[in-house]
Amino acid sequence: xxxxxxxxxxxxxxxxxxxxxxxxxxxxxxxxxxxxxxxxxxxxxxxxxxxxxxxxxxxxxxxxxxxxxxxxxxxxxxxxxxxxxxxxxxxxxxxxxxxxxxxxxxxxxxxxxxxxxxxxxxxxxxxxxxxxxxxxxxxxxxxxxxxxxxxxxxxxxxxxxxxxxxxxxxxxxxxxxxxxxxxxxxxxxxxxxxxxxxxxxxxxxxxxxxxxxxxxxxxxxxxxxxxxxxxxxxxxxxxxxxxxxxxxxxxxxxxxxxxxxxxxxxxxxxxxxxxxxxxxxxxxxxxxxxxxxxxxxxxxxxxxxxxxxxxxxxxxxxxxxxxxxxxxxxxxxxxxxxxxxxxxxxxxxxxxxxxxxxxxxxxxxxxxxxxxxxxxxxxx
Length: 380
Ligand SMILES: Cc1ncc(COP(=O)(O)O)c(C=O)c1O
Hints:
This protein is an alpha/beta fold. The chain is built from 14 helices and twelve strands. The chain has a seven-stranded mixed β-sheet with strand order 1-7-6-5-4-2-3, with helices on both faces. A five-stranded mixed β-sheet has the order 8-9-12-11-10. Strand 4 (136-142), helix 6 (154-163) and strand 5 (167-171) form a beta-alpha-beta unit. The longest helix is centred in the C-terminal third of the chain and has 20 residues, at 246-265. It is globular and about 70 Å long. It binds pyridoxal-5'-phosphate. Pyridoxal-5'-phosphate is lined by residues 74-76, 99, 101, 142, 146, 171, 173-174, 193, 195, 205, 207, 338.
């Protein structure tokens, strides 16, 4: 079956007891046993599992081409569970331009449990190789990165990881399996913030881990039910509903993203543009090779914090908000919002200037998005 068909049908069977085409939200904490030692449908307690979670996990595993997937209360909870596969003394090589929350989790929390992290430019394989230590067990990459849209070659990273018996983890939040298929390129584990494009409607948080190896899958399921951060029925339901339109949404996001990026690139008030779909992006060719489209995340520099403040306070259709990947356009200033927990010297090194604006282009009429940006740019 094709991607859109799978997104609508896999895991989404009609309710067996009523025939309802959309299965109900199983808003229950516990399940009554038929007799001691025998449950009705394999469920006993909602922390461990429930039908809405199982349905969503089946769809995500299918779309990413994985063996199985497990969903969590947020993208960060999903990512945290992946690092819990490691043991004290293990070392991870991480994309230096990683989402601020991952930087915070690793440098301020997980280091206290004996894990070691090196943040390097994963767009350069020689640098990744140089960062390897005898105890390196994982390469963790985000591609494209948030918010500077740097691209790491997934196949090259997979080869490096395999040669050194390390696990390659790819955060595929920015593109979704519709635009990028990390497992086909050799990734062992894929993570997502479901809060973004997979749900797509900005009405729940969630995260997913997609596994390719039975051993990892068993451990992640153990972490999910022991740690208790599995996604709740209502949020699973909302995410499953959102995912049914993933293919059409991503097509429109892609088209709108490209149109807005071209417009901004030619705008005299924009100092620097970051978007892999533009031929002047340094990794445009790699993006064309490993992605089915450039996506709808872009960033641009407006020259000063004051200019950024004036611009952001004037947008009307683009909502000044954290998050991304919703049907509505969302705009932010990463240095003060999503990446505020990253030290300024690190932000400066990876190009997150104080005046860098990030835009998640929604699927409104693109003329309206562009008109909104243009009127706000007049205030700079
Ligand atoms: C690329 C990426 N990964 C992970 C996360 C974390 O996801 P969540 O906010 O659902 O915890 C985010 C959040 O913005 C993100 O942008």
